[in-house]
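lol ok so funny story. i was supposed to be doing the assay writeup but got distracted and ended up predicting the structure for this chain instead. priorities right. anyway since i did it might as well share w the group, maybe its usefull for someone
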Amino acid sequence: MIAKTEAKIETSLKIDPQARLFQVARSNYVDPEIFRAEMDAIFSKCWLYVGHDSELKGNDAFEMRRVGGRSVVFLRDKDGQVRCFLNVCPHRGAQITRHRSGRAKHFSCIYHGWTFENTGKCKLVSEADTYPESFHADSRNDLVAVPRFEQYRGFWFLNYDRDAVSLHDYLAGAREYIDLVVDQAEEEMCVVDGLQEYSARANWKMLAENSTDVLHVETLHPTYLDLIRTNSGGTMVRGKLNGGGISLGNGHGVVEREATYGRPVAQWISLWGEQAKVEIDQIYARLVAKFGEERAHRMATKSRNLLIFPNLVINDIMSVTVRTFQPVSEDFMEVSVWSMAPKEEFGKPALERRLTNFFEFLGPGGFATPDDIEALESCQRAFASWREAPWNDLSKGFGAPASHPTDEITQRAFWLAWRECLSAGGKK
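and the output, tada:
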């Protein structure tokens, strides 16, 4: 079985630099063996996003998350330390919590009543006197922490591989683009309360591809484009996309381009009114004073679609959005989406403008997300013919001297990292 899977990986991509051809086997999206290999080599070996520091509001706050096929508890303990535990009782394996979020100093297993402090320390074993004294040695009954747990600029990641490289090194060139998001805030960037969740009957890799795919926007989202042309005073021009796609290392990629729509930080449109212009001009002036004209202009007027391999997307576009997609099977995924905003915007009209942008485009009922999901599910249905029509093409811009925003450089970077992970058994 292993040899068979390795042979599939070997033929998963067809790359011919001389002919500028890059193709992906459609079997990669439908094969259960490939899916199992991904869960072992990617989702058990790569850094995976868990949550943002701002979600844990005060000591004893927790969030239950599904990450890489495992249930985990993301929490701030009684002393204020951020931790992440596997959501499994050391005794017989029941979940220590079934609540999605809340506050708890202790977690008590519903099955036999074992109880744990939110530091992970076991506080009560039912009928402890029936066990030998050695049963409690070496913290053997404490909650199991995830093997690696690190953060960058408030974004917390886990890794199930104890021997993985540091998160700092893994993020590579993506750190620059996270900085561009976080530095927009005068105080700090925070997750806005309220999680959006939906699912798609499609392979997770298609959403990874789609997240930095600018080419589909004109075709798939014409209604939204008409709306923002109207809201932007007619400034959006078809075919004028200044910027490009960039491979950032380790499978990460970004498309950065001039924004042709309103951005709360800090590009005004007439729809928002004159008072908003005053506020946004003040934001821009602050950015210039702190970072200089060039960086301020980049932060304020350019949009970024950032993919952090394998399954985290940070969209810094008409709003700041964080999205993860968790593979459940080769043809099904679960998607979670959060909106972010500078802390100083909370309770002010600026936050309302930002959330309106978020809901209109990226929300489950917005102009874009239903279109995207239908397109991905349409592909998944069509991939039933993978034997007769075996290849997807990602050749756009391959070997070109300069990148255009609609080139497929970021998708190619993703697939090369995907193959490297699977070929090496997940060692990056």
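The first strand starts at residue 13 and ends at 16. The chain is about 30% helix and 25% strand.
back to the writeup now i swear
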